[in-house]
Amino acid sequence: VLLQHCVINQRDICKAKFIGELLVPVAPFDQKSGRETWTVAFAPDGSYFAWSQGHRIVTLVPWSKCLKNFVGEGSTGVGPQQNSEGGTVVPVGEPREHTIDCGDIVWGLAFGSSVPEKQSRCVNIEWHRFKFGQDQLLLATGLNNGRVKIWDVYTGKLLLNLMDHTDIVRDLTFAPDGSLMLVSASRDKTLRVWDLKDDGNMVKVLRGHQNWVYCCAFSPDSSVLCSVGASKSVFLWDMDKYSLIRKLEGHHNDVVSCEFSPDGALLATASYDTRVIIWDPHVGTVLLELAHLFPPPSPIFAGGANDRWVRSVAFCHDGRHIASITDDRMVRFWTIDEKSPKAIAPLINGLCCAFSIDGSVLAAGSRDGSVHFWACPKGIASLQHLCRMALRRVMSTQQVQTLPIPPRIRSYLSYQDL
Question: Could you tell me which residues the WD repeats occupy (predicted)?
């Protein structure tokens, strides 16, 4: 019966459409560590794509130009071009490509915009040190030496150098409300909150992790922060009070990646225990487990070395699709209403992934400094799902549970039917 179930699922899985790649020239002797693409990121307005291509270098490319090259050349790789004083003249107002030397290995990347995705909760909107326009776009880089460097995306110039962490800055995330509050996650077991509208002043140190912090992510309304790390830890923080809300328990190994759904009703966490868990962050319950090994391994096996470590997880902006990167050389595309992948694609030594802003493309970085791109499986969201997302953007699970509606609808709105 189990074998028959697997065969049926394999028939339903399609191959994801590969659309292009960004390759970095590599010398034959250059096979040592330091080349990894630990992070890829899309700008909030979709104008830029950035990736850490190894050896201290971060490349910023206009996303529309990059995508156009893929369409024009089929699946041909596009190599990054080095900026120079004698470089190609770019029309005024058009996004420019930048290659930035960060001075050390880059582990984390994050775009920050002073234009909020929704009404900002920030009171102090005056820049003290820099007079930036309303369309300011920043790039934060987390380095091997514990520093966080802030760059102007449009010019490639260094703006701030934040020094307080004592170990590798593994991940960075900006509040999506336009306040330019930045959170850094480090191997020094802390998270630090920086106010870039106040000259990069450090506002708070969040302590609680007993080991390395791998990743952090804001909820869409910027009120909650999730941080994950070694020793199975998943923490939720109140970013108004800078206090711990709760710890989520369910993983059996280090947790290395996390992301909220666009409506904030779901939280996805990826772990070396071969699983992605979908949580209700409002009440701390497990709604769905996406298994990358069948049958699911025992906690002892999942807690050790295996070839199904999940390296990264990303939520698509349609709120339906999820992507995961694993050590079994696969990229998997999932939907929240199915427990088996909808599409798969081969990827050797994948480390990270992120969806484009419109949700149509997935970018994945690998150990050789390259980035590969796939089209997200197409599908039309139901009207029910769109209504659910609209409602959950403004209502918590607790509030939904008090609505005078039939239990079946209440369950659907709470994502309890996953």
Answer: 132-161, 162-204, 206-247, 248-280, 310-344, 354-374
pLDDT digits (tens, 9 = 90+) for 14-25: 999 999 999 987
d(CA 160, CA 183): 15
Strands (E), 66-157: 98-101, 106-113, 137-143, 147-152
Instruction: Give 340: exposed, middle or buried? Use CB within 10 Å, 0-12, 13-18, 19+.
Output: middle
DSSP string, 171-224: EEEE-TTSS-EEEEEETTSEEEEEEGGGTTEEEEEEE--SS-EEEEEE-TTSSE
Please state the separation of Cα 39 from the chain's center in Å. 8
- Both tokens assigned to 365: 């970085």
pLDDT digits (tens, 9 = 90+) for 362-413: 999 999 999 999 999 988 889 999 999 999 999 999 999 999 999 999 999 9
CB 363 within 8 A of CB 371: yes
Q: What is the DSSP letter of 7?
A: H
Decide which of 114 and 340 is more confident: 340
CB–CB of 196/160 below 8 Å?
yes
Question: Which among 310, 336, 315, 341 has a CA at the least distance from the CA of 14?
Answer: 341
Q: What is the pTM of this model?
A: 0.88
3-state class of 243 per DSSP?
strand
